């Protein structure tokens, strides 16, 4: 098999300063053969990317280029495309695949690991950040479990766009530096119905301070490998949760108090994360414990979706269609369940329940407080009052009762004026309804009553109308990466046209501001997209 080259002439390769502390500090797989197997007592396996025939950069995040100190590098150069598909290795890069397990759809699945993601290493950025660079789709690893280690353009583009969009929406997330096509066709059966076809292969370079997942800790715990688990916990606390160590005792073993605080901090970040998802209408689709970042970031964009009509029972993932474990309305409960699994595995180190129970209690309290604050912001209220529970519950019941686009609705709500009569209000809200003809008289009466209650509530609130509108329009996005827009960008990119992709990415950089000439990117899903694959439902095939 071909291996990546380390070039001796580096002129067209980006300058990157590597400091691979994950690899340096944590136990390595002693075997170097790249075939599927159980990897014991190790946090990672050294794994080289498998070269691809004709790498070509489709898009880069200019923000991430700058953050990594690559602003002067030409992303269309051969060197850039070679580096960010793994065809060439920069000096200092020591590629590895990470070992982890996970609960998938509620069942313990054992070892999973990076089956197609290969870390190039950690780079030190010009401002002193430590960021891991990870190529998704760069070839097989010991964790590939018989699969091909590759990714297709449609799934890579969806991950690339959404992770950048999430960042601009203010939602914690892994980032994406680049989207590069490989020139290698990849065989996929999108609907798992025996109709496999070749699709363009591609590689996304993901970026995060850490790609550790809940499942990274669960796997050694499940194997009673306390040594690896302890090293992972120490490493994570030292570098990512240093405040949990008393008096900055950075090099010591984390004691039970530190582990308890670490877990509590993970609970807090996860509560913050899931409230953001509910705010913007993001449905992850596969909230398995291997897809839960220990940093509280959104990670692993697969068959995710954006809520269009407000439906708490909706999931975009066809694989989950029957039980809807990962439906929109259940995300808070599911991440709490996942935190419970993380607590179980940390318990094998601490043998103490209380600090971990305190973390779970903290999640509940944080979630509640943050959810209330978020709903106040969505409605433009200065602070939560007890009676707001009824106001928000009633609103959600109304939104779910007829097909109402959540994103369009909240932006329209911010446009209502105090003096609007019901007809004027309905006119303003009209674009949010997918089937306005289905509004019954009873529904209209309930909505009029809700609008009156909302007006009474805002009348009593100290915020001025302008302040309220501003609060709402910085909480409720106008542009979100709607599934059908992703499909349009994919269709064009597969034909070699990245114009729609670039225009869309640019709009998503300012998701809260009205952008002249871009109304089409803020509209609700058109009717043709209602049932089209990729627009309303997605499989895990990627
Ligand atoms: P995901 O559903 O993307 O979170 O993936 C679950 C597991 O399957 C992870 O261990 C992935 O690395 C692995 N996986 C998914 N797709 C592939 C692929 N094409 N080749 C190898 N491993 C894969
Ligand atoms: Mg995953």
Question: Can you describe what's shown?
Answer:
With 542 residues, the chain is an alpha+beta fold. It has three domains: 21-211, no CATH class; 215-376, no CATH class; 381-473, no CATH class. It has 16 helices and twelve strands. The protein has a six-stranded antiparallel β-sheet. α7 (256-280) packs parallel to α9, α8 packs antiparallel against α9 (354-379) and α15 (483-494) packs antiparallel against α16 (499-508). The longest helix is centred in the C-terminal third of the chain and has 26 residues, at 354-379. It is globular, with a radius of gyration of 24 Å. The two termini are 24 Å apart. The chain binds adenosine monophosphate (AMP) and magnesium ion. Residues 290-291, 300 line the site of magnesium ion.
Write the layout of secondary structure elements.
Elements: E1 17-18, H1 21-25, E2 44-46, E3 56-60, H2 62-67, H3 78-83, E4 96-98, E5 101-104, E6 107-111, E7 117-124, E8 130-136, H4 153-169, E9 175-188, E10 197-208, H5 214-222, H6 226-240, H7 256-280, E11 282-283, E12 305-306, H8 331-350, H9 354-379, H10 388-401, H11 406-413, H12 422-429, H13 441-459, H14 465-473, H15 483-494, H16 499-508
Helix pairs in contact: 4-15, 5-6, 5-8, 7-8, 7-9, 8-9, 10-13, 15-16
Adenosine monophosphate (AMP) binds at residues 112-116, 143-144, 147-150, 286, 290-291, 300, 302, 540.
């Amino acid at each position: 098999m071909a291996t990546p080259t380390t070039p001796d002439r580096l002129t067209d390769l980006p300058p990157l300063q590597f400091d691979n502390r994950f690899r340096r500090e944590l136990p390595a797989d002693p075997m170097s053969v790249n075939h599927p197997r159980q990897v014991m007592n190790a946090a990672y396996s050294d794994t080289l990317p498998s070269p691809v025939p004709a790498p070509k950069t489709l898009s880069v995040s200019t923000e991430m280029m700058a953050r990594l100190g690559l602003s002067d590098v030409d992303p269309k150069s051969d060197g850039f495309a070679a580096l960010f598909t793994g065809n060439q290795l920069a000096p200092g890069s020591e590629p590895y695949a990470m070992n982890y397990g996970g609960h998938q759809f509620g069942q313990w699945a054992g070892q999973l690991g990076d089956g197609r993601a290969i870390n190039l290493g950690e780079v030190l950025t010009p401002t002193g950040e430590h960021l891991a660079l990870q190529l998704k789709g760069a070839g097989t690893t010991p964790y590939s479990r018989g699969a091909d280690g590759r990714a297709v353009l449609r799934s890579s583009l969806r991950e690339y766009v959404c992770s950048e969009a999430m960042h601009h929406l203010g939602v914690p997330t892994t980032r994406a530096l680049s989207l590069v096509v490989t020139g290698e066709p990849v065989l996929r059966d999108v609907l798992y119905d025996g109709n496999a076809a070749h699709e363009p292969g591609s590689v996304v370079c993901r970026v995060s301070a850490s790609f550790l997942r809940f499942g990274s800790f669960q796997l050694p715990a499940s194997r009673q490998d306390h040594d690896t688990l302890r090293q992972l916990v120490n490493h994570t606390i030292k570098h990512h949760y240093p405040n949990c160590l008393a008096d900055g005792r950075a090099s010591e073993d984390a004691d039970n108090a530190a582990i308890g605080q670490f877990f509590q901090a993970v609970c807090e970040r996860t509560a913050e994360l899931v409230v953001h998802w509910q705010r913007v209408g993001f449905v992850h689709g596969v909230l398995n414990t291997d897809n839960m970042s220990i940093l509280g970031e959104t990670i692993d964009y697969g068959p995710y979706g954006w809520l269009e009509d407000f439906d708490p029972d909706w999931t975009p993932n066809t694989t989950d269609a029957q039980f809807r474990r990962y439906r929109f309305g259940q995300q808070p409960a599911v991440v709490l369940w996942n935190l419970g699994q993380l607590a179980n595995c940390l318990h094998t180190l601490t043998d103490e329940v209380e600090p971990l129970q305190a973390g779970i209690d903290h999640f509940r309290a944080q979630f509640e407080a943050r959810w209330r604050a978020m709903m106040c912001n969505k409605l433009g209220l200065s602070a939560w009052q007890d009676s707001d529970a009824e106001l928000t519950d009633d609103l959600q019941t109304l939104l779910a009762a007829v097909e109402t686009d959540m994103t369009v609705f909240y932006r329209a709500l911010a446009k209502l004026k105090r003096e609007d009569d019901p007809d004027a209000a309905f006119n303003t809200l009209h674009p949010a309804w997918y089937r306005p003809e289905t509004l019954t008289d009873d529904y209209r009466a309930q909505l009029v009553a809700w609008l009156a209650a909302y007006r009474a509530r805002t009348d009593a609130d100290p915020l001025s109308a302008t302040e309220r509108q501003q609060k709402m329009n910085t909480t409720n996005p106008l542009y979100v990466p709607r599934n059908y827009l992703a499909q349009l960008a994919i269709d064009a990119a597969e034909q070699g046209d990245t114009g729609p992709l670039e225009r869309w990415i640019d709009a998503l950089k300012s998701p809260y501001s009205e952008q002249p000439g871009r109304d089409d990117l803020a509209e609700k899903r058109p009717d043709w997209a209602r049932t089209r694959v990729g627009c309303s439902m997605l499989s895990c095939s990627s």
